[in-house]
Here is the input.
Amino acid sequence: MSNVAVSSDSFTVKPLNLATLSLSNLLPYITSPELILNSHSTWSPGPYTLNATISINGLIVDYDTVKFYVGEEEKWEGEGDCEVCGIIKDSLKIAESQRYESYASSTIKNIEGMSSLRFRVFLNQIVKILGEREAVNYLEVGVYKGSTFVSALDENVGVGKGWAIDDWSLFGGPKEEFLRSVERFGDVVNVHETNAFNFPEIDTLKNVNVYFYDGPHTYTNHFRSITDYYPILSENFILIVDDFNFKDVREGTEEGIKVMNGTVEGFWEVRTGNNELDGGGGGEWHNGCGVYVVRKWLEPVEFVEEVPVVEVVVGVEEVQVPEVVVRGEPLELTEITSPPPTEPFNVIFELSSLLPSTPPGFDTLTISVIPSWYPTAAAHFKRLVEAGYYDNCSIYRIIPNFFLQFGLHPNPNVTSVWSSVEVPTNEDLTPQKNMRGLVGFVPGSGAQVYVNLSELESHNSRLNSQGLIPFGKVIGTQNREGNWPVIEGIQRKYGQKIDVKRLEKEGKDYLEDFEDLTYIVKAHIMVR
Here is the structure.
């Protein structure tokens, strides 16, 4: 028979052998008051409700009903064949061995915190073994008193940098205890007292190859733990995630890796106690843990494949585009004779199919166009809006805190006409640098628009180097976190799954399999 762990609201017991679990061998493991359960020869995993007696020196003084859960043995499962995967396997082998305590220094054994000694040894060995082949840059989000952070770095000479992020808003805020525990590491450690998702100095972190996340545990938190921190992670990195019993933890993490196009080369997990109960088991792996070995997709995020450029040049004075047919009705995208804009103007995009969590009244996206930044682009964008090009277009790409993208028309014939238009830059133009909230055309397209959602200097520098020049910015009410509620309400579950090339060629027919996409109902210029 295998071992089990038993947990209950009334009492806890240590792992026992199923074949011999009975009243006689249960007594030494039960907390006060002493509970004697009716004898069972074998116990299968699952929930139990049993009659119990409370006794003192063998004298029964009361009866009670006890509810508890018999769970499977806390066992790691997973696989991976890469070189770094071998480090995880070796570390688990040590941590699960009977001699694991011999691998722990007195510091690791004695530091106070909410982590088991077995888990501390596991972290320490990952950093130790990896540090024998390359410098380890360790990041931990949610450090509390430092039991896991200190264990990871303790006596590991291969550590280059260690970053700790916590705002110490929970569990009594033991910041000073943490700082005392890491003093001996000196300049190796950098401590950031901040909200993990409102972290202006994130760009100061570089090439993190071991990342332990134990911050807030909502789906969104875990999704952003990947997307927000992805640019500062190394080409290959080890990701360790606590509280893996929770469904939101698992799904948020996996979706974050997926939308960032990460390749999972190895994965291991352990779940404890009753996976559906908050807090899970009380064993040596606490509330479960997940470990990933991830290889990043090194190519820059492509906003769109370049399309052949037709010799149609948009000048400030005039534009000629032939008439095309949309949904069986003529839509005249003809020459527009209105003068090019010189003053800023606002374009309002009315949106549909926003997420249910979107606050009432936040169903329009407003872009302020600033002609002085990029005159020819401002003129061309104005013509697109006036011609009704963006009406019924989908917002087909969005990665939170990274970018969103729209501008492929439901009719591929319309897309082909406008996407082939070249929007030249002015020779004397000093390009506006990219930053969060700015808007521009995607290179190689005369109609697709990107909205930059990133505050990261590394990301914005990459956009600048790729020739993305903003012509406007998002304006409107922001929430306490500095985000636009309407953008947070845009459907994001597809990430980058939509094939831009197919959408460009097939139009709305291709999108039939993508339910709940957010659409632009109508775009119009605000009349002042």
The radius of gyration is 29 Å.
